[in-house]
UniProtKB/TrEMBL annotation:
Region annotated Disordered, chain positions: 323-347
Protein known as: Glycerophosphoryl diester phosphodiesterase
Keywords: Membrane, Transmembrane, Transmembrane helix
TM region(s), chain numbering: 12-35
A Pfam family reported for this protein in Swiss-Prot or TrEMBL: MlaD
Coiled-coil segments: none
Length: 347
C-alpha cells in the first residue's frame, strides 16, 4: 500500500514538472523574438475605426514584418481632452502604439523617412477581417501629418486612411452628390429629349428630311458610278502607269550605260585637274607678282634714262623744223647766202 502511494506521488510530481517545463518552453518560444533585441516604440493616430486590429498584430513594411502592435487606445484618455472638447477632431483620434525592431528596417532614421513620405495605415489580410499595420512611402504633400495639441510620448509616424476607408469615403461623397441631384427633373428632361428625337426621326422632322436627302444622294451616286466607264478608266490608268514605269526603267538603263559612266569619269578627271590647277594658283600668282615688281623697276630705270634723250630729241626736232621752214621760204638764201657768223668766243 505504501509503495503504491509513493508511485502515485512520483507520477503526479513528474507530471507537474513536465507541465511546468512545457509552459516555460512555450513562453520562451513566444518571447524568443524579444530576447537579445532592442525594440523601438512609435505611435500614430487614425480617424477611422480599428476594428479587426488587435494588440500583437504585425507591423509590415511592404509585406515584410518589422514589428508588432503593443497598445490601442483613445487619445482623449491617454493625453486628456484638449480645450476644444468633443468638437475638437484631435479628441476623437484613436491611438496606436507599436514596437519596431531596428534590425528589420536597417537602423535608418525614421524622422528622415517621415519627411520623405513614410506613413502607416490599416490593412486587411483578406476575408477573415484580421487587420495589421502597413508602412509605406506616399506623397507627403498629399498626406501631411496630423497636427495635435500634445507632445507625443514616442516618435510619431503619421497615418493615412486605409484603402477601405478611402473607398467608403468616395462612395459617401458620390451618394451625397447624387442626393443633391433632382432625379425627377433629370428623368423629365430625358423623356422630353426622347420625344423630340422621335418626332425628328418620324414624319416631317429635320432629321427625317436629312436622312431622305442622304438616301437620294447615295442613290444618285450609285447610279453615276454604275453608268461611268470605270473599266476603260482603269485600263487607261494602268497603261499610264506602265509607261511611267518604262520611262523610269529607260532612265535607269541610261544612267547605268557606258556613255554616262564615261562622262562621269571625264568629269571626275576634269575635277581632279581643276583641283590641281587651283592648288598651283598661289605659286603662279607669286611668280606674277615678282615679274611685275621686276617690270616696275625696269620701267623706272628706263624712264630715268629716256628723260634727257627725249629732251634732246625734242630740241633736234625743233631745229629741223626751223631749217625746213627756212628752206621752204628761201631755198637760194640757204644755198648761196652768207655763212652764219662765228661764235662769239672766236671773234
Amino acid at each position: 500500500m505504501a509503495r503504491s502511494g509513493r508511485s502515485l506521488y512520483l507520477r503526479v510530481g513528474t507530471l507537474v514538472v513536465v507541465g511546468a517545463a512545457l509552459g516555460i518552453g512555450f513562453i520562451l518560444f513566444l518571447t524568443s523574438g524579444g530576447f537579445g533585441s532592442r525594440q523601438v516604440m512609435f505611435e500614430t493616430y487614425v480617424r477611422e475605426s480599428v476594428a479587426g486590429l488587435e494588440v500583437g498584430a504585425p507591423v509590415r513594411f511592404r509585406g515584410v514584418a518589422v514589428g508588432r502592435v503593443t497598445e490601442l487606445g483613445l487619445t482623449s484618455v491617454v493625453y486628456g481632452v484638449s480645450g476644444g472638447g468633443v468638437d475638437d477632431a484631435a479628441n476623437r483620434l484613436v491611438l496606436i502604439r507599436f514596437a519596431l525592431d531596428p534590425r528589420r528596417y536597417g537602423n535608418s532614421s525614421v524622422e528622415n523617412a517621415v519627411r520623405a513620405g513614410l506613413r502607416v495605415r490599416m490593412a486587411s489580410t483578406g476575408v477573415t477581417g484580421v487587420s495589421y499595420l502597413e508602412a509605406d512611402f506616399v506623397d507627403p504633400e498629399r498626406f501631411p501629418p496630423i497636427v495635435v495639441p500634445w507632445t507625443p510620448a514616442y516618435p510619431y509616424i503619421p497615418s493615412i486612411p486605409s484603402t477601405i476607408s478611402q473607398v467608403t469615403s468616395a462612395a459617401e461623397r458620390l451618394m451625397s452628390r447624387l442626393s443633391d441631384v433632382d432625379l425627377e427633373a433629370l428623368f423629365g428632361s430625358a423623356t422630353d429629349l426622347i420625344q423630340d428625337l422621335r418626332s425628328q426621326v418620324s414624319g416631317q422632322g429635320d432629321l427625317a428630311l436629312t436622312l431622305r436627302e442622304a438616301a437620294a444622294t447615295m442613290t444618285a451616286l450609285r447610279e453615276a458610278i454604275e453608268g461611268a466607264e470605270l473599266a476603260a478608266t482603269v485600263r487607261d490608268v494602268r497603261v499610264a502607269v506602265n509607261r511611267v514605269g518604262g520611262a523610269g526603267q529607260a532612265a535607269e538603263e541610261l544612267l547605268q550605260g557606258p556613255a554616262v559612266a564615261g562622262a562621269v569619269n571625264n568629269i571626275s578627271q576634269a575635277a581632279a585637274d581643276l583641283r590641281t590647277s587651283i592648288a598651283r594658283l598661289p605659286a603662279v600668282i607669286q611668280s606674277l607678282e615678282l615679274a611685275l615688281r621686276s617690270v616696275r623697276g625696269t620701267t623706272s630705270d628706263a624712264q630715268a634714262d629716256l628723260g634727257p634723250l627725249l629732251r634732246d630729241l625734242r630740241a633736234t626736232a625743233a631745229s629741223l623744223r626751223d631749217t625746213a621752214e627756212a628752206l621752204r621760204r628761201s631755198p637760194s638764201q640757204s644755198l648761196f647766202g652768207q655763212p652764219p657768223p662765228p661764235p662769239r668766243d672766236r671773234r
